[in-house]
């Protein structure tokens, strides 16, 4: 699916708005416009979980005039699929779909959806470096990365540069420290030709917890976004810059003392027409 969906253009040169084939649902009470694609869905799903969307809906009537989303239609459709999948086919979905959903759920503060995506990611057989990259980017609990760290630390060979380049320098240095300390521990235990693997799984995992400072966040949720210090963020506005200007209300009204305007962000996705909605799970790219 291309990044730029095909658009039909009117005689005046403007892109012609078209209803999404799957997610323009007649019974919906809120409309979103992503590029030139119009979605009509139920605001309940958004109000139920996201304070950012609750604030956005307070700004105007999304059924009278659509909220404009700065997202690709296919991405927003993936996001909606989670709500409308009639078969609950969450298994066997591609990684890319889940990453799209994770990105939007994180941006908009859909914590339950984040938990769903992380549960699905845990079921996928991701390469250690790819998993570390994804979980670090999305601030997912590093406790879930211990097996990946261990695999890299105990490997007899180093990863190729093309793979190692995906990791930040701090992670690379810490993994190097784990390998060196594990070799030292194995030598202290009498191993004549010690390697990092000679220290054993339990000892390597202990070293990983120590060097990556994981013990202090053992009680924290594995699904909550975190700050650089490992503290869960309270809401999407403190995590990814808030909704910013990615969602525009159909109309704004002055609030409070100085006419402050409330805003919200939106995601991108894909669907079908005539009020029918088919769903799957989340694709994505960060």
Topology of helices and strands:
Layout: E1 18-24, E2 30-34, E3 37-41, H1 44-49, H2 51-57, E4 67-69, H3 73-84, H4 95-108, H5 111-123, H6 128-137, H7 146-154, H8 161-164, H9 169-188, H10 201-211, E5 247-248
Parallel strand pairs: 1-3, 2-4
Antiparallel strand pairs: 2-3, 4-5
Helix pairs in contact: 3-4, 4-5, 6-7, 7-9, 7-10, 9-10
How large a portion of the residues is in β-strands, by DSSP E?
A: 5-15%
How many distinct beta strands? Answer: 5
Order of helices and strands: EEEHHEHHHHHHHHE
The DSSP helix count reads 10
Strand order, largest beta sheet: 1-3-2-4-5
Shape verdict? elongated
Regions with little confidence, pLDDT below 50 for 5+ residues: 1-13, 227-245, 251-286
Helical percentage: 25-40%
Biggest sheet, in brief? 5 strands, mixed
Distance between the termini: 16 Å
Q: What is the SS-derived class?
A: alpha/beta
Overall average residue pLDDT? 79
Radius of gyration, in angstroms, nearest whole number = 23 Å
Oligomer: single chain
């Amino acid at each position: 699916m291309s990044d730029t969906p095909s658009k039909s253009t009117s005689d005046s040169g403007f892109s012609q708005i078209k209803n999404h084939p799957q997610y323009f649902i007649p019974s919906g009470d809120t409309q979103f416009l992503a590029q030139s694609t119009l979605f009509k869905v139920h605001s309940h799903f958004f109000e139920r979980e996201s304070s950012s969307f609750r604030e956005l809906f307070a700004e105007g009537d999304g059924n009278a005039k659509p909220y404009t989303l700065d997202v690709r239609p296919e991405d927003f459709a993936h996001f909606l699929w989670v709500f409308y999948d009639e078969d609950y086919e969450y298994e066997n979905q591609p990684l890319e779909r889940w990453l799209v959903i994770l990105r939007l759920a994180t941006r908009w503060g859909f914590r339950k959806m984040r938990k769903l995506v992380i549960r699905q990611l845990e079921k996928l057989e991701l390469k250690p470096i790819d998993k570390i990259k994804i979980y670090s980017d999305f601030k997912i609990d590093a406790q879930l990365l211990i097996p990946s760290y261990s695999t890299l630390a105990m490997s007899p060979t180093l990863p190729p540069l093309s793979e190692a380049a995906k990791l930040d320098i701090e992670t690379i240095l810490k993994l190097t420290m784990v390998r060196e300390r594990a070799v030292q521990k194995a030598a202290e235990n009498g191993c004549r030709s010690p390697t990092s693997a000679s220290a054993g799984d339990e000892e390597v995992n202990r070293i990983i917890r120590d060097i990556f400072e994981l013990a202090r966040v053992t009680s924290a949720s594995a699904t909550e976004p975190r700050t650089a210090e490992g503290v869960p963020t309270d809401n999407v506005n403190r995590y990814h810059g808030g909704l910013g200007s990615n969602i525009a209300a159909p109309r704004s009204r002055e609030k409070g003392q100085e006419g402050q305007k409330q805003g919200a962000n939106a995601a991108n996705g894909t669907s079908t027409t005539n009020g029918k909605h088919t769903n799957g799970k989340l694709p994505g790219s960060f």
